[in-house]
Structures are given as structure tokens and as C-alpha cells.
Write a structure and sequence with these properties.
Radius of gyration: 22 Å
Distance between the termini: 25 Å
Structural class: alpha/beta
Strand content: 25-35%
Helix content: 10-25%
Shape: elongated
Bound molecules: NADPH dihydro-nicotinamide-adenine-dinucleotide phosphate
């Protein structure tokens, strides 16, 4: 058959997009419920956790587990019950009618009677080269995940919003000193968070400051900073740090669905709490893509479970548009 010749798209009862804790947990539940789920693993199978080293706060692993191992275990568990996996990038989604029409890699179309979106969120990074170099060896975008490794050390947090303040406060319970690097001359965070941060003796706020780069042999040992950039007061200096935490916001991976789904002002998918259904019947969302608040592997997995149960109930209620499945 030629490449251009059309083939009938495959129809599935439940399509899961995303391969983090939410997606894999949805796959475990929907496969055990005989929904024969197909899960699309994006360009980073396993999601954000594959960029973390040790995970010590996921229940069931008393000695901790690496992020990639945890994801591998979840995937295997879903596979055991018959979940199917496909690697690819969802490039288009037509949610105007059921079955929903999902396009993978601009080529393969899949029709889905129900859809669970678990595409996660990506932490924003500054875009400097050294962030990449020290990812996992001093650079992190999750204090709750990695803060523990900086007990008694000196760390820096970048950002002036609620997340940055929260991360700085959390780190101050572990680290000996926390720099908060803020590019403006004020914090954007809520008043209460500002008060907590400014009143914390372990936190030093560096206003009007940007990061130029990080340095160190194997691990981060310090940062070059620039104060009052572009003014006659401009000053370049360095600080000694062991950890560098980004807290300049997250970007939920929702672009491809934005045409159909109700999103909040930051782009997160709105769900009808306490359930996981979106504004479109039969489309559910789970994990970081729909949760700006907790952003934990365990809370994402919990939401993945709820989305799977919601999808199952939706299909059991007779919401099957196709006779093909
Ligand atoms: P925000 O968008 O609120 O803040 C991002 C911060 O990062 C800002 O201070 C911004 O600076 C700074 N920033 C952005 N890009 C850069 C850059 N390239 N270089 C340096 N600094 C940069 O994101 P948050 O994640 O803090 O919060 C997201 C939402 O979640 C908010 O609505 C927040 O209120 C909410 N939230 C609530 C919490 C709570 O209630 N407990 C906890 C955490 C989040 P600038 O100000 O100059 O733009």
C-alpha cells in the first residue's frame, strides 16, 4: 500500500494521552476494567519523573526509587493487564463529536469513545546552557522532590511568585541558607507568602537580579548573577550555592486541545471537581495538566485512577457511539 493511501482509523474504547503517573495509573485501571486502553507515550515516556533522580515520597517504596524505575514499574503493571502503548506526538485533536479523532505524528488517526488527557505540565526554565548541564546534579524545578538532598547546604530559588516563595520556605526547613533570586524589585506572590519569606531569617532575597550562568565541576558550586541589568548600576557578582531551583512557572501541555477544552487563565484544563470530566462529555483530564496546585506523582496517580473510573462509568452508561468496538 502506498504511504498516501488512506486506511480506516482504528477505534478504541479508551485512549489515554500521556505517560506520567496519571496516564499509567489510568491505563492500569482501564485495562483491569476491560476497556482495552491504548496509551500514547509522548516524546519523553515516563514524563517529568524521568528527569528526577531519587523519589522518596511515593508510598510503597520504603527505600526510595528512581524516577525512571517508578515509571517503568507503572508501565509494566499496566502492560500486565493488557494496556497497549504507542509512541508518538499528538499533533491534532478533533473533539467536536464522538468518537473523538486524535492524530498522532500528523499521520495516524485514532478514534476514541472516551479520552483521558494526562499530558502533564512542563516546568519553565530560564534557557541558559548551564541549566541543561547540571540537570540532576544541582538544577531542579521541584523542591519537594529534590530539596531533601540539600540538607544543611546553600541553595537558590529563582522566581518571585507563590511557587518560588513556597519552594524557598520549604527549602528553608532543610537548607542552611536560601537565596531567592527575583528579577524585579518586588515579589509577585500573595501578601501572606511575601510576609513569610521576608520574615524568614534563612532566606535572603536578591531583587533586581538575573542569573547569567552556573558553574562547578561535576555539581553546581555557584551562580554568576547580574543586578540592575542594563542600567548604570549594573553589577555582576557570584554566589556560592549547591542547588539551583527554578520556580518561574509551569506550562501545562494543552495547546493541541485548547480549541475545544475550557482552560483556566494559566492554560490548565478545567475539570468538574470532584470528578475529572472536562467541559466535553467523555473527555477526562488527570494529573498536572489539570492540577496547578499539588503537582505530585502520587496526587497525579490518584487523579489518573479517578479519570479511569469516570471513563468506565461514562462508557457503562451507554455512551458508545460506535459499533466497531
Ligand atoms: P507565577 O507566574 O505567578 O510567577 C512566576 C514568577 O517567575 C514571577 O515572579 C516571574 O517574574 C518569574 N519569572 C518568570 N520568568 C522568569 C525569567 N525568565 N527569569 C526570572 N524570573 C522569571 O507562577 P507561579 O508558579 O509562582 O504561580 C502560578 C499560579 O499558581 C499563580 O496563580 C499562583 O498564585 C498559584 N500558586 C498558588 C499557591 C498557593 O496558593 N499556595 C502556590 C503556588 C502557586 P515577574 O514577576 O517579573 O513576571
Amino acid at each position: 500500500m502506498s504511504e498516501t493511501q488512506a486506511t480506516a482509523p482504528r477505534t478504541v474504547k479508551c485512549l489515554i494521552i500521556g505517560s506520567g503517573p496519571a496516564g499509567y495509573t489510568s491505563a492500569i485501571y482501564t485495562s483491569r476494567a476491560n476497556l482495552n486502553p491504548l496509551l500514547i507515550e509522548g516524546p519523553q515516556p515516563g514524563g517529568q519523573l524521568t528527569t528526577t533522580t531519587d523519589v522518596e515520597n511515593f508510598p510503597g517504596y520504603p527505600d526510595g526509587v528512581t524516577g525512571p524505575q517508578l515509571m517503568e514499574d507503572m508501565r509494566k503493571q499496566a502492560e500486565r493487564f493488557g494496556a497497549e502503548f504507542m509512541t508518538g506526538l499528538v499533533t491534532d485533536a478533533d473533539l467536536s463529536a464522538r468518537p473523538f479523532r486524535i492524530t498522532v505524528n500528523s499521520r495516524t488517526e485514532i478514534l476514541a469513545e472516551s479520552l483521558i488527557i494526562a499530558t502533564g505540565a512542563s516546568a519553565k526554565y530560564l534557557g541558559i546552557d548551564s541549566e541543561e548541564k547540571y540537570r540532576g546534579t544541582g538544577v531542579s524545578a521541584c523542591a519537594t522532590c529534590d530539596g531533601f538532598f540539600y540538607r544543611g547546604r546553600t541553595v537558590a530559588v529563582v522566581g518571585g511568585g507563590d511557587t518560588a516563595c513556597e519552594e524557598a520556605l520549604y527549602l528553608s526547613t532543610l537548607a542552611s541558607k536560601v537565596y531567592l533570586i527575583v528579577r524585579k524589585d518586588y515579589l509577585r506572590a500573595s501578601k501572606v507568602m511575601q510576609q513569610r519569606v521576608t520574615g524568614n531569617p534563612k532566606i535572603e532575597i536578591l531583587y533586581n537580579t538575573n542569573t547569567i550562568d552556573l558553574f562547578g565541576d561535576e555539581f553546581v558550586e555557584g551562580a554568576h548573577l547580574i543586578e540592575f541589568m542594563g542600567t548604570d548600576k549594573e553589577r555582576i557578582y557570584e554566589i556560592a550555592i549547591d542547588g539551583f531551583f527554578l520556580a518561574i512557572g509551569h506550562r501545562p501541555n494543552t495547546e493541541v486541545f485548547a480549541k475545544y477544552l475550557e482552560l483556566d487563565e494559566s492554560g490548565y484544563i478545567k475539570v468538574k471537581a470532584p470528578g475529572t470530566e472536562t467541559n466535553i462529555q467523555g473527555v477526562f483530564a488527570a494529573g498536572d495538566v489539570a492540577d496547578p496546585h499539588y503537582r505530585q506523582a502520587v496526587s497525579a496517580a490518584g487523579m489518573g485512577c479517578r479519570a479511569a473510573i469516570d471513563a468506565e462509568r461514562f462508557l457503562i452508561a451507554g455512551n458508545t457511539a460506535s459499533a466497531l468496538i
